[in-house]
Design brief:
By secondary structure, this protein is α+β, with helices and mostly antiparallel strands. The chain has one domain: Nuclear Transport Factor 2, Chain: A, CATH 3.10.450. It has five helices and six strands. Strand 4 and strand 5 form a beta hairpin. The longest helix has 21 residues.
Length: 168
């Protein structure tokens, strides 16, 4: 049973450690609209609320609610950046089609992307350069059935936060 639960969580489990470093992870400086301005507390609150909405929608298997929280390009689990909403929706439908009713998640911590240094592959780092900027947020959730973590990448622009990826 435990193996089944771990496998279920694995689809969204963040299999990398989180470390805060004083060096920044270069987000490539690409123009992804104007980065959010305003107080860090307000940006943090928007990013966290949106990431929590995304997680809640995934757990409830509500594809419409999931799609309301996301924006493109979308960093899909370190594999690829999706640039088409229909493709993203199809992939998310497959992803959320699992019963997570007995698995709990909890907000663990939030980082600015530039302060977040996950053990990512070179490919993942390259993909993220096209999705997030240094001031965007990574909201990390812990999962009850394992030591896995879920990293949800959020972008705040024009007072609105969107989920732009997750890391398995």
């Amino acid at each position: 049973m435990r193996k089944y639960l771990i496998a279920t969580v694995g689809i969204l489990g963040l299999a990398f450690g989180c470390h805060v470093l004083s060096t920044s992870a270069n987000a490539g400086g690409k123009d992804k609209k104007e980065p959010a301005k305003g107080s860090d507390a307000k940006i943090d609150k928007l990013a966290t609320a949106t990431a929590e909405g995304f997680m809640k929608a995934v757990w409830k298997q509500d594809i419409d609610a999931v799609m309301k929280t996301v924006d493109l390009p979308f960093f899909f689990d370190g594999v690829e950046n999706l640039k088409d909403r229909d493709v993203l929706k199809r992939k998310m439908e497959r992803l959320i089609n699992r019963d997570r009713s007995k698995i709990e998640y909890k907000l663990k911590i939030q980082f600015r992307f530039k302060d977040f240094s996950p053990k990512l592959t070179k490919k993942s780092r390259t993909l993220l350069k096209d999705v997030v900027a240094d001031n965007d947020r990574v909201v990390v959730f812990s999962v009850s059935v394992s030591d896995d973590l879920i990293g949800v990448f959020t972008r705040v622009r024009g007072g609105k936060a969107s989920v732009v990826g997750f890391r398995d």
